[in-house]
C-alpha cells in the first residue's frame, strides 16, 4: 500500500474545459486576399511610383474574382497609401510602405472592436511625438519640401475619395517620418492603417463615401492639415502639437459616426 501523498497523479477531470476565452478565428474576405496578393506583388517586384496596374477587369480574371471584389481590394490598398485610383484612368502605385506591424494590430481590433478608442489614442501619441520632434529638429529645406509636397498632394486630391484617402495616409506618414526615426514611422503606419481601415470600412465594403469626404467638406478637411505643416515650418512644437490634437478630435468625431 503506497504511503499517503506518494502518488501525485490527479484524478481525470471529465468536465470539458471552458474555452470561451480562446482566441477567435478571423476569416479573411476574398477582397482582403486579393489586396494582399497585389500588395505582395508590388513589394516583391519593387514597382516604382506611377506604375499603372492592370484594369479591374483584367485583375478580376486573374484572381477569379468579381470586379466589385477587385474594386474593394483596391480601395483597401488606397487606405494604406499604396495605390490610388484615378477616375477614367486606372489604379497606380504610390509607394511601398512598411506594413509589418499592421497585421497584428488589425487582428487585435477585429477581436475587440471596443479597443478602437485606445488605438486612436495611440495614434495620437505617436503622431504627436513625430510631429514635435520634426518641429524641434528640422533644419533641412528638403525635408520641409516633403511636408509641403504631401500637403499639396492632399489639396490636389479633393473630390476623389480614393485619391484623397491615399494622399491623407501619405501626408501623416510623411509628417511622422520627418522625425527621422524609421522605427517610429513603421509603428505609426501600422497603427494608422489599422485605424483608418476601421474608419473607412463602409467605403471599402460598399463604396459608400463618408459625409466628411464629400466635395462640400473639402475645404474643412484641408484646413485640418495645414496647421500641422505650418507648425513644423515655424519650428514651433507647441503649435504643431495643438494642430495634431485638433486633427485627432476631428477623427474621433468621424469614428463616433461609425458607431
Describe what this molecule looks like in 3D.
By secondary structure, the protein is mainly alpha-helical. The chain is globular, with a radius of gyration of 22 Å. Strands 1-2 form a two-stranded antiparallel ribbon. It folds into two domains: 30-93, Arc Repressor Mutant, subunit A, CATH 1.10.10; 102-258, Up-down Bundle (Four Helix Bundle (Hemerythrin (Met), subunit A)). Strand 1 (83-86) and strand 2 (90-93) form a beta hairpin. Helices cover 63% and strands 3% of the residues.
Averaged pLDDT: 84
CATH-defined fold name of the largest domain? Four Helix Bundle (Hemerythrin (Met), subunit A)
Oligomeric state as shown: single chain
CATH class of the largest domain: Mainly Alpha
In percent, how helical is the residue content? 55-70%
Biggest pleated sheet? 2 strands, antiparallel
- Total separate domains: 2
Q: What is the tally of beta strands?
A: 2
Give the spatial strand order of the biggest sheet.
Answer: 1-2
* Molecular shape: globular
CA radius of gyration is 22 Å
Q: What would you call the structural class? A: mainly alpha
End-to-end Cα distance = 67 Å
Order of helices and strands: HHHEEHHHHHHHH
Full CATH superfamily name of the largest domain: GntR ligand-binding domain-like
Number of helices: 11
Strand content: under 5%
Which residues form runs of ≥5 with pLDDT under 50? none
The CATH architecture of the largest domain comes to: Up-down Bundle
Amino acid at each position: 500500500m503506497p504511503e499517503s501523498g506518494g502518488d501525485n497523479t490527479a484524478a481525470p477531470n471529465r468536465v470539458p474545459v471552458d474555452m470561451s476565452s480562446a482566441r477567435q478565428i478571423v476569416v479573411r474576405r476574398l477582397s482582403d486576399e486579393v489586396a494582399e496578393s497585389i500588395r505582395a506583388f508590388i513589394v516583391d517586384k519593387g514597382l516604382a511610383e506611377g506604375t499603372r496596374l492592370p484594369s479591374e477587369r483584367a485583375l478580376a480574371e486573374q484572381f477569379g474574382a468579381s470586379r466589385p471584389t477587385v474594386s474593394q481590394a483596391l480601395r483597401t490598398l488606397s487606405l494604406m497609401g499604396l495605390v490610388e485610383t484615378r477616375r477614367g484612368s486606372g489604379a497606380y502605385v504610390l509607394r511601398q510602405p512598411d506594413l509589418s506591424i499592421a497585421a497584428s494590430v488589425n487582428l487585435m481590433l477585429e477581436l475587440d472592436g471596443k479597443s478602437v478608442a485606445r488605438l486612436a489614442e495611440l495614434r495620437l501619441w505617436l503622431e504627436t511625438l513625430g510631429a514635435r520632434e520634426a518641429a524641434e529638429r528640422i533644419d533641412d529645406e528638403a525635408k520641409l519640401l516633403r511636408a509641403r509636397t504631401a500637403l499639396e498632394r492632399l489639396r490636389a486630391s479633393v473630390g476623389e475619395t480614393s485619391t484623397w484617402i491615399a494622399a491623407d495616409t501619405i501626408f501623416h506618414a510623411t509628417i511622422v517620418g520627418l522625425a527621422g526615426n524609421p522605427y517610429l514611422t513603421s509603428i505609426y503606419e501600422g497603427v494608422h492603417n489599422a485605424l483608418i481601415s476601421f474608419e473607412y470600412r463602409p467605403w471599402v465594403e460598399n463604396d459608400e463615401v463618408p459625409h466628411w469626404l464629400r466635395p462640400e467638406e473639402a475645404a474643412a478637411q484641408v484646413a485640418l492639415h495645414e496647421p500641422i505643416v505650418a507648425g513644423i515650418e515655424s519650428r514651433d512644437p507647441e503649435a504643431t502639437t495643438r494642430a495634431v490634437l485638433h486633427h485627432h478630435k476631428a477623427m474621433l468625431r468621424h469614428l463616433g459616426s461609425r458607431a
